[in-house]
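ok posting inputs for the flavin-adenine dinucleotide job
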Amino acid sequence: MKIIVLLKRVPDTEAKILINQDGNGIREDGVKFIINTYDEYGIEEGLRLKEKVGGDSKVTAVCAGPEESTEVIRTALAMGVDDAVHICDPALAKPSPFTIAEVLAKAISEEGFDIIFCGKQGIDDDMAQTQSILAEKLDIPQVNNATVFELADDLSKAVLNRRIEGGDEKVEASLPVIISCEKGLNDPRYASLPGIMKAKKKEIRVKNLADLGFNEAPSSGRSRVLKWLPMPKGGECKMVEAEETVDAVKELARLLREEAKVV
Amino acid sequence: MKFEALDFFEIEKSFNEEEVLIRDTARKFVDREIIPGIAEQWEAGEFPLDLVQKMGELGFLGPFIPAEYGGAGCSYTIYGLICQEMERGDSGVRSFCSVQGSLVMYPIWKFGSEEQKKKYLPELAAGKIIGCFGLTEPDAGSDPRSMTTSARKDGDGWVLNGAKMWITNGSIADIAVVWAKDEEGIIRGFIVHRDDEGFSAPEQKHKVSLRSSVTSELVLEDVRISADRELPGTEDLKSPLMCLTSARYGIAWGAVGVLQSVFDEALQYSRERIQFGRPTASFQITQAKLVEMATDLTNAQMMAYRLGRLADSGAMKYYHVSMAKRHNVNVALEAARKARGILGANGITLEYQTIRHMCNMESVHTYEGTFEIHTLILGEYLTGLSAFGNE
Ligand SMILES: Cc1cc2nc3c(=O)[nH]c(=O)nc-3n(C[C@H](O)[C@H](O)[C@H](O)COP(=O)(O)OP(=O)(O)OC[C@H]3O[C@@H](n4cnc5c(N)ncnc54)[C@H](O)[C@@H]3O)c2cc1C
Ligand SMILES: Cc1cc2nc3c(=O)[nH]c(=O)nc-3n(C[C@H](O)[C@H](O)[C@H](O)COP(=O)(O)OP(=O)(O)OC[C@H]3O[C@@H](n4cnc5c(N)ncnc54)[C@H](O)[C@@H]3O)c2cc1C
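and the output
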């Protein structure tokens, strides 16, 4: 079984994000980058599937991103992924989901695939579009927000739970399929020391746009990011003071009704 | 409060990709598996035993041991980084790693027979069995040559008698590497099993330092063992001292983890703690303390880093290790005390990492060669004159 896991290099969840002067990116100095946390669930699920199916199953990571993405690719290899494709081209700086889905579709088709795991969204820009566009381009079903994944014994279809408001939805999808993973699907393993030592010898196939048969970066679709803005400052905090608590509560209720107009 | 490791001189940039990856794994492991429960375990005087197999799986136990014996066959720098991160969690966990890796696996690897290596090393590396190292005795601490535990030849095997004290992991160990004097007064190493007749390992309680580590006596009463339990390749006191050099190396790195932890906690706390209408970090006295801590941390970090490179190029000598252990642990203890003060009354509670580190550092200052003993080692090396007092 040929398993593809997608991974994206994103700033650490704990990193202090500052927008650069032009408003078209973040200041990267001193920022630690990690594998998109939702992609980690995909990697883990891919590895578990390989362990379960056995035989000549193989997990290949596909990452489109700048040169520095090698570190997160290496982490995935250290977790147990067999090899990786790194799509790297200066023309892909700040790409749109459309562009990325197009190049991913090409690279993944060249690799061959039975199942694709990815995160439900990138924790950096929260677009959550790439996987759906990719499904469309590959003409395969997509199941998003998976919290339980199982493969039918004859390997023909996947049975999944999707987390929705207030409960789960049970879904079945025929293979090949792309599954976007939600927190809770599994507990991703660590990149172990023996794994890291082994990862050194694993292959990362670097491909630029020309290698994938593109003359230029594919179209970015019909929407476009104009600018990034810092988080708006929170409003002024007003302290309600009174000698008796009861009076303070009354005053608060009045303010909520008359000034904030929320009750 | 998210931990941020100060790296003032950008030493990170001198580490290769593999070193950074394993450091990141270890850091994540500490954040997820150690920090959440350690204060409670420390207070209860318990070692987090459930971590052992996990650390084994991740390759944290004896990482420098070659892959053919179950290790990861990695560099000493990587071993150092693992110690640094583990000790940022707790010195008890780092002590476990030091004992298992440097004091049990290392001597079996260096002085053991091929059969012994094949038998013990893979299980020790995987965390399936636990080891301890018995050198210190009630009447022989800084001066291990004066030990009285004896090994008498008995037919094909040996009979061991004596008592060891302050032995990390003693009561939880499956095997003990015990050092004893033969009839000619030569120190030899033996592998004693937990269930060997005449052997027991009662735990030493009531510690106020290194509480999340097991410390025990080892009692040996006519313990009869076969010849294949002796480590055949030892050379008197030099052999246990080689083990100590390896462990002290890891401690020099571990102290950096403590420094990073207490500095970060003091910095974050004092920036938010308002007294006299201003953050306490805005007062000159606090700043002087923080600057001192940051400088000590940076010094310690550079010493550890350089020590790692010396070790990996084969140029590391015992005196390099002595200086780094002596300096780094000493400044870590001082920094922990300063940080404790900056935290005010909060600093005396286990809600914060600092006082735990501060108490732990008292043990680390004493074991693996006390601060004074390393002063004497370095003094002798520099002057050519011994000040130990025996001769
Ligand atoms: C928590 C903990 C865990 C330990 N784990 C182990 C273990 O796993 N295995 C093991 O074998 N041992 C272990 N030890 C023992 C440790 O190595 C000894 O405590 C250490 O070597 C010091 O010996 P001592 O305690 O007998 O002190 P002493 O040797 O009695 O020293 C007391 C003081 O006198 C000073 N002193 C001694 N000689 C001189 C001198 N010539 N000149 C100046 N000052 C001197 C020392 O620096 C020290 O300050 C552990 C100790 C602790 C606290
Ligand atoms: C065990 C215990 C028992 C106690 N019992 C009592 C009690 O019975 N009754 C009671 O009222 N209180 C009690 N206290 C509280 C104690 O008096 C306070 O902890 C002490 O006044 C310090 O205040 P703090 O802990 O808020 O630290 P902070 O005031 O926040 O000080 C933190 C650090 O900042 C430093 N600092 C503060 N201001 C400055 C400045 N301007 N310049 C330079 N450095 C500065 C301090 O020296 C300290 O190192 C007790 C505390 C403890 C630990």
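notes: Chain B has a mean pLDDT of 97. The longest strand of chain B covers residues 157-168.
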